[in-house]
Amino acid sequence: MSNIFKSSQIRIINTPSIKHPQGDELQVNIKDKLAEAEKIADDIISKAKNEAEEIILNARRDSEKVLEETHSQAKSIYDAARDEGFNQGYEKGYIEGKEISDAMIEEANEIKKNYLKERELALSSIENDVIYMVISLCENIINQKLENDKEAILPIILKGINSLNVKENLIIKVSKEDYDIVEMSKQRLLAMANLIEDIEIRIDSTLSRGDCIIEGSKGNVDSSVNLQIEEMRKVLITLLNSE
Q: Is 154 found in the same domain as 194?
């Protein structure tokens, strides 16, 4: 079984909020939404684990009951056949009884083996479903946030600028949907990114809402939301496959 259920908390990348120089904070709640997604995911995992354990417990009880009844029945047949064989003075009855009892015990062991196999398959299926549900949930919440809060792109850009740690002019590429708000907020971004002399905002038709690529003389940085979601997806799928 993988390590998914061994760690009930799924960590998601935090995005910082931006503070206006005059003190008013941009209402960026991606972090809160992700925390909400994390809580919902934990509830889903907890419920799935409880349901899986109930299925396993019932299957175990059924398996043990069948095994117990089979052993008891096999012993009765074996004893009866042995007594019959001894009473009649024939070894044949003893041998036949032993063969029947051995066959029934083997059948019971096969039932137990199948139960264990089905248990692993059930847990694996539940984990797989939960992981992809969490990924989809996070994507929907983030995309909804980006759609409703036009300024949600700003802290993403600021995070990318700060990661470059340079003092120069920068080119910031964003989607068509984010261009207007970023262009309008250019002076605010410059005020919060103290080392940067100037920034040029450009539209990149290959980018989606929430994506941004920052280009400087010493290198580029992609701080796109979709990239962070993809990195989260890879981490979760890696955990799922690490059995």
A: yes
Query: Of 109, 124, 148, which marks where a domain is finished?
Result: 148
| 118 and 165, same domain (yes or no) | no
Last residue of a domain, one of 148, 183, 199: 148
* Number of compact structural domains in the chain: 2
Domain membership of residue 216 as a residue range: 150-232
User: Long-range contact list for 36-43, CB < 8 A, 24+ apart?
Assistant: 36/141, 37/12, 37/134, 37/137, 37/138, 37/141, 38/9, 38/10, 38/12, 40/137, 41/10, 41/130, 41/133, 41/134, 41/137, 42/8, 42/9, 42/10
Q: How far apart are CA 238 and CA 135, in angstroms?
A: 13
Distance of CA 141 to the CA centre of its chain: 15
Whole-model pTM: value is: 0.46
Calpha distance 174→206 (Å, rounded): 9
Q: Please tell me what DSSP assigns to residue 25.
A: B
Instruction: Check whether 235 has a pLDDT greater than 90.
Output: no
pLDDT tens-digit readout, 6-25? 444 444 444 444 444 433 44
The answer to whether the CB of 37 falls within 8 A of the CB of 134 is yes
Helix (H, G, I), strand (E, B) or coil at 222: strand
Cα(150)–Cα(192) distance, integer angstroms: 18
pLDDT digits (tens, 9 = 90+) for 33-70: 555 655 665 666 666 666 666 766 666 676 666 666 66
72 with 135, same domain? Answer: yes
100 touches 44 (CB < 8 A): no
C-alpha to C-alpha distance for 201 and 70, rounded to whole angstroms = 77
- Tell whether 65 and 82 lie within a shared domain: yes
Task: Please indicate, yes or no, whether residues 56 and 123 belong to a single structural domain of this protein.
Answer: yes
